[in-house]
Amino acid sequence: MKQSIFVVEDDQSIREMLEYALLAAGYETMCFDNSEDFLVQLNRSIPALVVLDIMLPGEDGITTLKKLRQDTKTKKIPVIMLTAKTAEIDRIRGLDLGADDYISKPFSILEVISRIRAVLRRFEQGLELSEIRLGDISLFEEKRKVLVKNNEIYLTFKEFELLHYLMRNKGIVLSRDQLLNQVWGFDYSGETRTVDMHIKTLRQKLGDANILIKTIRNVGYKCEE
Questions:
Q1: Which residues of 19-44 are buried (b: 16+ CB within 10 A; e: fewer)?
Q2: Are strands 4-8 and 28-32 parallel, antiparallel or unpaired?
Q3: Cβ pair 75, 67 in contact under 8 A
Q4: From CA 100, how far away is CA 26, in angstroms rounded?
Q5: pTM
Q6: Helix 88-96 crosses helix 61-70 at what angle (to 10 degrees)?
Q7: Which numeric CATH code is attached to 4-124?
Q8: Is 176 within 8 Å of 126 (Cβ atoms)?
Q9: In sequence order, what are the residues at sequence separation of 6 or more whose Cβ sits closer than 8 angstroms to the Cβ of residue 95?
Q10: pLDDT tens by residue, 184-204
Q11: Could you say which architecture CATH assigns to the domain 131-223?
Q12: Which candidate, 59, 10, 5, places its Cα nearest to that of 32?
């Protein structure tokens, strides 16, 4: 049986592009251009995952996400948020409310499909989406807390986001440009050395567990046991 993906996006060109890509990837898809119609449909059927834009006419995506997380019928539906490239504060709010992932516009459609598969895979493996584990590191997404050998360590916002992205993509080599785009945003004008500096401080705070962050010479980094 095909898994169903709901897309809530008011931009028609983006909505149609996502619908076409999801159908081609083997998912059943329903698309909505506003939150109201989407919420009505949830009373009829529950999808495997929701792709939810933040900027919507009427009720915005953040308010809609809050409603999903407060309803026992929908609180465990994985949600990937779509955000404007400059809307870092919205990404923070979305993560705090329990978004499972976020993607900044403009985005690669292949990246969206990859993220959807990764989130659904975590569900299929029976893992709690609020917690990611790798070796001695446990990262709690909703609480924004990191434990190393059951001892809490304190990270800055960007350190947490960097570790989160690395762990969520464990085993995948990520270039410095990819990390800049995803952690700092597409409009970030800093140099790639910024990534190296944050990796250095992150490793210091992780102690012996820092061996899980591998340097890939002339490319970037990856998280791996």
A1: bebbeebebebbbbbebeebbeebee
A2: parallel
A3: no
A4: 21
A5: 0.58
A6: 10
A7: 3.40.50.2300
A8: no
A9: 102, 141, 142, 144
A10: 765 455 566 788 888 999 999
A11: Orthogonal Bundle (1.10)
A12: 10
